Amino acid sequence: MGCIGNLLWFIFGGFWSGLSWFLVGLLWCLPIVTIPIGRQCFKMAKLSLMPFGKHVEYGGGTVSLLVNILWLIFGGLIMAAEFAAIGVVLCITIIGAPFGVQMFKLAKLALMPFGAEVK
């Protein structure tokens, strides 16, 4: 399921979700101070392109919490709402349900991307 799921995912929505993470990462890389945040966005873009067969473990510490709060204020809520809305639309049909579940995984990740590790 992983290979076929990732191929179908990329064709029917993964490209756009990966592109949104990539564009947000570019915006975060404009100021020199926030380049580490942009690099994390690029990691999440990679996950967003091929999410099947991967899972996310959340952890981190105080620094991750502070950066996640900044992230929520400056773009995380918008991305999470985008992924959740697309996930709801995909879950309308039985065929789209696995893709909707992946969108919900990305929505949760859009809320707390720092301190998250993809395995």
UniProtKB/TrEMBL annotation:
Limits of the Inner membrane component domain: 4-54, 66-115
Record field: transmembrane: 15-37, 58-78, 84-104
Organism lineage: Bacteria, Bacillati, Bacillota, Clostridia, Eubacteriales
Domain of life: Bacteria
InterPro entries, A to Z: Inner_membrane_protein (IPR052937), UCP028777 (IPR031308), YccF (IPR005185)
UniProt keyword Transport, yes or no: no
GO CC term, one of those recorded: plasma membrane
Signal peptide location: none
Name the record gives this protein: Uncharacterized membrane protein YccF, DUF307 family
Keywords, in A-Z order: Membrane, Transmembrane, Transmembrane helix
Organism of derivation: Ruminococcus flavefaciens
